[in-house]
Amino acid sequence: MAKTPKNMKSAAVYTADQIQVLEGLEAVRRRPGMYIGGIDQAALHHMVYEVVDNAVDEAMAERCDQIEVVLHKDKSISVIDDGAGIPVGIQKQTGLSALTVVMTKLHAGGKFGGGGYKVSGGLHGVGVSAVNALSTWFESTVRRDGKIYRQRFERGVPVTDVQVIGKTSKNDTGTQQRFMYDETIFDDDAEYRFETLVQRFREMAFLNRGLKIRLVDERPPEAREMNFYFEGGVSSFVRHLTRNRTVLHEPVHIERSFETTVVEAAIQYTDGFSESVYAFANTINTPDGGTHLTGLRSAVTRCVNDYAHKQGTLKEKDANFSGDDTREGLTAIISVKLVDPQFESQTKVKLLNNEVRNQVESVVAEAFSEWLESNPRQAKKIVDKCATSARARAAARKARDLVIRKSALESMTLPGKLADCSERDPAKAELYLVEGDSAGGSAKQGRDRRFQAILPLRGKILNVEKARLDKALSNREIQALITALGTGIGDQFNLANLRYHRIFIMTDADVDGSHIRTLLLTLFFRYMEPLISAGHLYIAQPPLYLIKSGREQHYAYSELEKERLVSRFPGKSVGVQRYKGLGEMNPEQLWQTTMNPEQRTALQVIIEDAAATDQTFDMLMGGEVAPRRRFINTHANEVRNLDV
């Protein structure tokens, strides 16, 4: 059958000339997301981690015990270590200096089995060369063999040869990498955050006992620094995570070496209701877990069940505790160091080595079982907590089933409940969670009914940080929210069933509004976390002020913007209206300022550091008052001066 001729005038010509070959680091500059995960602030920090990871690899090779990271005033950053120093001799395959090869060639380095590193995190060989490619300039300074060497690069291209710039003692070795990220590649608002780097480097120090890491910020308005050094390793890490919680026992420290793998873990139970378990491979955080995390969880569940049966808490006919039961209140760190780690991608979010699961499960099961037998009083507390969790989980299951049955029979378009939209494609639909009936009324009138749904929430939902899921499911507002979203909750959460791909928390700009917003964020983080990770949750940003002068009117979203707008009318009468609540805005104003996709401003909720986020919710919403009081006293002055 003959083909119908295509319109050659409109079709693009496709010939051999259209085939492009990207040489060297050009591919990195063209597609930075493939190498560092994007061009946003998180990717900018990933650049730093790639360079620091090389210094940490030196520490794991026992050639380095001090690392210094400096944020300079000119936006450049330095990473300095006292390791062996990058080799500068001629590399046989290329005829170039080894330093030049490491800095400019993808998939080049000393971590591919050449004996330079037994264990390392930089197995792909694209880390520092990718950073070099994405930097306006990059200077490598090496102290090695009694000499100081330097080479400069611009956008990944060497602009000098390796030069000897001085002498030093033969014992003085190490590498200094200083670079300026390319502002033409990264987002305009991307910048290094001191607090983000603090979290990362604290983790690194926990995972490498005896390693000293110093972080210095020279940028205005005020220089600051932090030093990290921990002798306790992952046990210190667990103590850090549980410092605001009531613990049931001291951390159980586990460590064992195989031929190719070192397994280290710390386990501690608290009286909380959430699981806080974090996994690392060659000191790299693997937020999506992997085989090492699976091995840890399996071992803990098996040990607790075996002990419960042995002590008679579980009878022969009783069902075993589930994994969820044995992990309630569990805080743990699993860290593995292995010769040939297989990660899911260059950003190393998940470990794939199959042999690691059995190694971790074997080590943890043996050590944790022995600890339970040797500490019967603490072991009984753990088993009793798991038994209570199992009963509560059964109650939660019944409550959840009741919510599902009820929602199937009861219309959710009743007054004060969900005002749904007509759009049935979740990717195009939005849900606004609004504080109170007054604001809900304005939102319902001001919305675009085609794709915007409104769910008013009466009062404050239950604080799920202080209650198990079965209690949370008895709260009517939480029931309405679960039904509206369609995803379920907890261990039955299914993101594929989400009915709206943009969910906005829209509360008043006062103390009560902030509290309601925090309660909702706690619920989402503890029981619907995949929804946040997938980028579906936002915080609406309604204006704080309406500025009027004559026929002109402007909205201000901060104190600073208000002052700037008022100053535009010198000598004129200016009216300033403060919106204390969303209900004070008429529907047209609410649509124009907060709900119109073409004009609105909203903050997307993201999780930069799961461990830090976990601690923050525990401190702000948990049962311990003292840590919350310390936090409030520490930050009171900052809040008073905050540009809201």
Secondary structure: elements and pairs:
Layout: H1 26-30, H2 33-36, H3 41-60, E1 66-71, E2 77-81, E3 90-91, E4 96-97, H4 98-104, H5 127-133, E5 135-144, E6 147-154, E7 157-158, E8 163-167, E9 174-181, H6 194-207, E10 212-217, E11 224-228, H7 234-241, E12 252-257, E13 261-269, E14 276-281, E15 284-285, H8 291-311, H9 323-327, E16 330-338, H10 354-374, H11 376-409, E17 430-435, H12 436-446, E18 452-457, H13 469-472, H14 476-485, E19 502-506, H15 511-527, H16 529-533, E20 537-540, E21 545-549, E22 552-556, H17 559-566, E23 575-578, H18 587-595, E24 602-604, H19 610-621, H20 625-640
Structure description:
It is a single chain. By secondary structure, the chain is of the alpha+beta class. The chain has three domains: 203 residues, Histidine kinase-like ATPase, C-terminal domain (Heat Shock Protein 90, 2-Layer Sandwich), CATH 3.30.565; 158 residues, Ribosomal Protein S5, domain 2; 158 residues, Rossmann fold (3-Layer(aba) Sandwich), CATH 3.40.50.670. The protein contains 20 helices and 24 strands. The strands form five sheets. Strands 1, 2, 5, 6, 7, 8, 9, 10 and 11 form a nine-stranded mixed beta sheet that branches. Strand 1 and strand 2 form a beta hairpin. Helix 3 runs antiparallel to helix 5 and helix 12 crosses helix 18. The chain starts with 25 loop residues before the first helix and ends with a helix. The N terminus and C terminus are likely disordered.
